[in-house]
Amino acid sequence: GERMKFCPECGAPVELRQPPDDNRERHICTVCTTIHYQNPKLIVGAIPEWEDGRILLCRRAIEPRHGLWTLPAGFMENGETTPEAAARETLEEANAQVQIGDLYSMYNIPYINQVYLLFRARLLNLGFSPGVESLEVELFAENDIPWDKLAFRAVSLTLKDYFADRHAGSYQFHIGDLLAPISHTSTSR
Ligand code: ZN
User: Fold this and answer.
1) Considering the entire predicted model, what is its pTM?
2) 36 alpha carbon to ligand 1 midpoint, in Å?
């Protein structure tokens, strides 16, 4: 989780220690004693498909992975459902209107405390354009997917499964775990 310095409740410094009856360290306020738990974040997105089978991808205008392509996806907000989050992210990043369908893939990424949820989605019209977080948005046929310029492993794995399922004739839910990339020197992080 992220390193917390001050208590969001009262503004006093927090310390990192293990509460009684817990099994890991937490940020605990030194004044009001509130225990600030940190939990994984959900990244929710869509696989927008046009009626001719092409998939809508966005080229990122922001870090990380500036300039690389991805499915529209982002951090879920409080007060929304996961399909609502997928539709909102698609609207924000691609100004694209979609009908969200079945949940298609879930990737656990424990080393960065994230979970990806990607939904199948029907692109409702061709009135899309880059949102502020995108350099360009474009429809790609399977043979044109920029595989070596995709931003995230969860996205490339999802797209590979998606096209394999399409060829097999039925879409199945996929779940997987992504481990930290292997480091070849003990000093790199
Ligand atoms: Zn406090």
Assistant:
1) 0.90
2) 9
Is 73 in contact with 45 (CB distance < 8 Å)? yes
How many whole angstroms from 3 Cα to the centroid of ligand 1?
15
CA of 21 to the centre of ligand 1 (A): 20
Ligand 1 centre distance from Cα of residue 111 (Å): 28
CA–centroid distance, residue 2 to ligand 1 (Å): 17
Selection from 74, 69, 78, 55 nearest residue 152 by Cα = 69
d(CA 98, CA 124) in angstroms, rounded, equals 5
Q: Report CA(115)–ligand 1 centroid distance (Å).
A: 29
Query: How does pLDDT run along the chain (189 residues), one tens digit per residue?
Result: 678 999 999 999 999 999 999 999 999 999 999 999 999 999 999 999 999 999 999 999 999 999 999 999 999 999 999 999 999 999 999 999 999 999 999 999 999 999 999 999 999 999 999 999 999 999 999 999 999 999 999 999 999 999 999 999 999 999 999 999 876 655 444
- HSE of 135 in the Cβ direction (CA atoms, 13 Å)? 11
